Fold Putative protease.
Amino acid sequence: MKKPELLVTPTSLSDIEPLAHAGADAFVIGEQKYGLRLAGEFTQEEVKAALDTAHGLGKKVYVAMNAIFHNDKVADLEEYISFLKDAGADAVLFGDPAVLMAARTAAPDMKLHWNTETTATNWYTCNYWGRKGAARAVLARELSMDSIVEIKENAEVEIEVQVHGMTCMFQSKRSLLGNYFEYQGKVMEVENRRQQKNMFLHDQERHNKYPIFEDENGTHIMSPNDMCIIDELGEMIEAGVDSFKIDGVLKSSQYLVQITKLYRKAIDLFVQDEDLYEEQKDGLLEEAKQLQPENRPLDTGFFFKETVY
């Protein structure tokens, strides 16, 4: 049985080594100019250092370039991809076809992961982008377990699935927070999201608090709960899903290390002894719940929601 990759998004360069020792196999890093909703900001110097550290530990590093690029940024893409090629990046995440075109010129051998956040919902589309050059498709978070298994059974590319963390519910390219404060007559600079961890939209009717932040890519509203399926990994492992992702956006370094350890244990248990995993999976879920902040309950996301046509 193939063991899936455990992929984590670190908050900073100093997270790489602890997360590697905790059991992470690969990392997604980058800077907000090119990547969407990263757990931390990595300058080019930090990207180089992260690659050196991770490769020294036998781990992989993927760099996010999955933002939507307007014409004023397109000219920078080839230069950044050339930098990543020289630095030794293991893959580049892309959603905008402009990145694919730039990679064909700047680094035709670069491994590409197709990640549009929401539109990877069927195996035909995944295979289409595979024929265009993508080696992996990052599936949308709004898919059921049955849909994920069906996609993997028919996919000609690697399949990545998020198994833990928050989900983006809404993004606008506009500076909605800044406009709101300006409308209120308040001169307030919206900080970089690494410092901005306590801003919420409060839905009184549903009794939910939605984390919200603003960065170079606009305004992002996140889910009120964190998904967690540490006790439901078996079906996807058996189907051969290639990568399980822990999303670290708005999480602390300490939290990520502990959650990574739990998922490492869960994956290894299932591959080595499925019966033992079945015995211990409820305990693993309870440990995950103990790590959660009070305002971040766990749920199973869309994995077991019924699809309505």
